[in-house]
Amino acid sequence: MADEATIARPYARAAFDHAHAAKQLAPWGELLANASMAVGDERVRPLIGNPHVKRADLVSFLLDVVGAAGDPQARNFVQLLADNGRLAALPQIAEQYAALRAEVENTVDVTVTSAMPLTPEQSEKLSKALTARLKRTVRLSTHVDPALIGGAVVKAGDFVVDGSLRGRIERLGNTMAGV
């Protein structure tokens, strides 16, 4: 069986091409992200592929949940996914769509997990530094994880900088253990 990324790729590309042509990249990104969360919900997951649930009812339910019931293009897209048994691929479709959108908009989503909340000044300084380093507009989201003890972990796609105290301790322990 093909992996999820391979299955999702043509659907993500089709959604992206339509949204880009219609100048609706943000609304379609939101639609796909919300639909992805909906199909990932533990109460919805069992409905997907259930022979006792009509596809049309499932499509209408999903569109109602994500607030796109009146959008004929969204209905056609979700119906196509349902007809092809691909609703479960929505998380991967949304992820690939977001990557295509970020490429066109020259943006990057950066997640900063720190031991303590960042001040607005720290967030601004970090955002400027990352914009210069990555040569893209940075969309910064921050999270707090006290388990880091101190410092922060910065993730932007494959780019990861672990400046946490916990990370330093782990690296020191690995060095001492000869790993």
The low-confidence parts are none
Approximate strand percentage: 5-15%
Instruction: Describe the global form.
Output: elongated
> What's the overall average pLDDT, rounded?
91
Number of helical segments? Answer: 7
- What is the name of the CATH superfamily of the largest domain? N-terminal domain of the delta subunit of the F1F0-ATP synthase
What's the gyration radius in Å?
Answer: 20 Å
Kindly report the spatial arrangement of strands forming the biggest sheet. Answer: 2-1-3-4
Number of DSSP E strands: 4
Measured distance between first and last alpha carbons? 37 Å
Q: How would you characterize the largest beta sheet?
A: 4 strands, mixed
Query: What is the domain tally?
Result: 2
Q: H/E order of the elements?
A: HHHHHEHEEEH
User: Which oligomerization state do the chains in this entry correspond to?
Assistant: single chain
In the CATH hierarchy, the third-tier topology of the largest domain is known as Peroxidase, domain 1
Task: State the CATH architecture of the largest domain.
Answer: Orthogonal Bundle
Structural class call reads: alpha+beta
Per CATH, the class of the largest domain reads Mainly Alpha
Question: Fraction of residues in helices?
Answer: 55-70%
Task: Provide structural commentary.
This protein is α+β, with helices and mostly antiparallel strands. It folds into 2 domains: 4-102, Orthogonal Bundle (Peroxidase, domain 1), CATH 1.10.520.20; 108-177, no CATH class. 57% of the residues lie in helices and 14% in strands. It has 7 helices and 4 strands; from the N terminus they run αααααβαβββα. It has helices at 4-21, 25-40, 55-66, 72-83, 90-105, 120-134, 165-177; strands at residues 107-114, 137-144, 152-156, 159-162. The chain has a 4-stranded mixed beta sheet with strand order 2-1-3-4. A hairpin with a 2-residue loop joins strand 3 (152-156) and strand 4 (159-162). Helix 1 packs antiparallel against helix 2 (25-40), helix 2 runs antiparallel to helix 5 (90-105) and helix 3 packs across helix 4. The longest helix is centred in the first third of the chain and has 18 residues, at 4-21. The radius of gyration is 20 Å and the shape is elongated. The two termini are 37 Å apart. The mean pLDDT is 91.
